[in-house]
Amino acid sequence: AVERTLVLAKPDAVRKNVVGKIIARFEDEGFKLVALKKLKLTKEQAGQFYIVHKERPFYDELCEFMSSGPIVAMVWEGENAIARVRAIMGATDPAKAEEGTLRKLYGSNVGENAVHGSDSVESANYEIPFFFSGLELIG
Ligand code: CMP
Fold it and tell me: Which residues are tagged catalytic?
């Protein structure tokens, strides 16, 4: 099915100036850009975005990091987009990610791993409206 997925270029990717390379990769893979914006989350907003991880030991660190600088939020559309974007990003831990994946190329460690992508249709249905209104989604 044609799906939409929420991708974040995380603060580390913005600081490394690799946002364009991340966007280019999704364009090269044939996805359609539906929405894009740069913003800076508060720690509380990061906590709401990652609310499913609230009980994890790394939650506080994750929210600190995700609010440590600007991010770039985007929505990409394509056939089977959720799983395909996750494959392009690679494993959560860049050290375990396959060669050529975005996290291997641009990530530093399991926390500072350059990109986020929705992990399911259910997640995408929470994450896309978290950042974008209907008017901002141009298919
Ligand atoms: P992401 O895809 O954004 O979804 C949740 C994030 O939590 C994940 O990527 C990692 O960056 C982060 N995360 C997962 N495990 C750890 C960990 N052990 N320590 C710090 N951050 C983690």
Answer: 116
